[in-house]
Write a structure and sequence with these properties.
Keywords: Disulfide bond, Signal
InterPro entries: Calycin, Invtbrt_color, Lipocln_cytosolic_FA-bd_dom
Bound molecules: 2-acetamido-2-deoxy-beta-D-glucopyranose
GO molecular function: pigment binding
Structural class: alpha+beta
Distance between the termini: 92 Å
CATH architecture of one domain: Beta Barrel
Organism: Anopheles epiroticus
Protein name: Lipocalin/cytosolic fatty-acid binding domain-containing protein
Number of strands: 10
């Protein structure tokens, strides 16, 4: 009878430990964000491109061409469709998920719990904070999820409405990142979005507005029709 060599078990363990980390860095404390603003869910929905990500020094593979569609669902939650690509030969990989609002009495910034259909059932929901956004061009998203009593997995992303950050916000975003992400292991990697590298993805074709905004768009012609009817009478 053959037994499984120890190195195979070790390799399997190593592979999965890295996969679980998934572009995160290990930290003993989360960053404090003192921002305070009224988050408007209906203005956050639509298409976002990930243009930068906190660099994971242990990553064996990078996710590029990352595009996501946030659709406003019930009670301030979002239904997420995302696609990304591994290398220029890769095909788009799709995943879908949900972000549920996490309500804390002292919360000043919008906090969500995110789960994708690719998330291991054994893994906790990912904590997601939208620490800065102007809705129309950029967003900075921070994640710090506890893995045990002493350690957290930390990630952060810069999202943009276009595949490249609008020129008038680049400096603002840089200043924000430099002043908040100050640890030596806080290094950013630009997510590749060039047309010759990225394959077309259906996520870009998805509707850009959730149920909330589209019902407003639909009701406008009805309202006009109503006004017309009143005039005719
Ligand atoms: C990454 O690798 C370094 C050394 O190669 C190690 O010290 C560190 O703990 C690793 N980090 C994670 C998150 O696995
Ligand atoms: C996750 O969802 C995406 C998009 O809906 C789908 O294409 C993919 O096959 C799903 N993956 C898994 C592991 O269920
Ligand atoms: C928590 O997890 C980290 C990383 O896997 C590990 O280094 C640390 O020893 C763990 N701490 C406890 C208390 O289990």
């Amino acid at each position: 009878m053959k037994t499984i060599p120890f190195w195979m078990i070790a390799m399997a363990y190593l592979c999965c430990a890295i996969a679980a980390a998934h572009g995160s860095i290990l930290t003993t404390s989360c960053l404090p964000f003192e921002e305070d603003y009224n988050f408007k869910e209906d203005k956050f929905d639509g298409t976002w491109y990930e243009v930068r990500r906190l660099r994971d020094p242990n990553a064996s593979q990078y996710e590029d061409c990352v595009v996501m569609n946030y659709k406003l669902g019930e009670k301030g939650s979002f239904v997420i469709r995302e696609s990304y690509q591994h290398g220029d030969e890769g095909e788009p990989i799709y995943r879908s998920g949900k972000a549920e609002p996490k309500v804390f009495q002292d919360a000043r910034i919008p906090k969500f719990l995110e789960r994708f259909n690719t998330t291991d059932p054994a893994d906790p929901d990912t904590s997601i904070d939208i620490v800065a956004t102007d809705y129309s061009s950029y967003a900075v998203v921070y994640s710090c999820t506890s893995i045990n009593s002493t350690h957290h997995l930390e990630s952060a992303w810069v999202l943009s409405r276009q595949s490249e950050l609008a020129k008038n916000v680049v400096e603002l975003v840089n200043l924000f990142l430099e002043s908040r992400f100050t640890r030596p292991d806080h290094k950013w990697r630009a997510t590749i979005h060039t047309a010759d590298y990225c394959k077309p993805t259906v996520v870009e074709q998805l509707p850009v507005h959730g149920a909330g905004s589209s019902s407003v768009a639909l009701s406008l012609p009805i309202l006009l029709l109503g006004l017309l009817a009143v005039k005719l009478l």
